[in-house]
Amino acid sequence: MGRPNKDGVDYFPHDVDLSGDEKIQLLESDHGILGYAVFCKLLERIYRNGYFIHADERFIKLFSRNCNIEIDACKNIINSCLENLFDKKLYSKFEILTSQGIQKRYMEIVKRRRQIEVISEYLLVNVNGNDENVNIISINVVINPQSKVKESKVNRKERILPLGEFKNIILLEEEFEKLKTQFGEKGTNERIENLSQYIASKGKKYKSHYATILTWERKNNPGSKNTETSCNWENEIR
Q1: This prediction's pTM
Q2: N or C: which end of the chain has fewer CB within 10 A?
Q3: For position 41, what pLDDT does the model report?
């Protein structure tokens, strides 16, 4: 049996000039060295978990106890961190601590993993395979984490496949299978590569790459139902 997927990481980069950062200096001006220590401990918890942590009342009680500080002091430090160091909107909506910088560093650390799981509502960075530094084969995106508990977790996952030469074609696994059924594996790959090259050269964005492939197919091969038909999008690409 294969090893289970791991969300957290064993290490994370700690900038040697972190204490000189203006945001950290503001934190220390309000809470002294304790503020710096609590922030670094929160980073450890976040990266141990992945790219965020749920910081609800229960977490804060346990965290403050482990840090041997008063709960109110812990809450005050977290509130100060939310002003500059963590994303305030996501905390207000989901009670999670994260930031764009944290997520960028996390994606860099796990870029060689075969698969990771992310929650779409929590993301502050692009994980659609457009970042040349990210080389993750597949990403499980959990949709709507606030849905009912009894709802199956598996049913709330949709696998995203970064495809094409430039890894810029995003298809749900179900969409990918539908294309193979309609065009065959060779025809599907050819259409994906054409769209991948077109997007890379023109810099265009589409809400749905699946819908775009079908639209271009109807435009260039009206009425064709041959699953192995060669696709020719030269007019569109030009």
Answers
A1: 0.54
A2: N
A3: 94
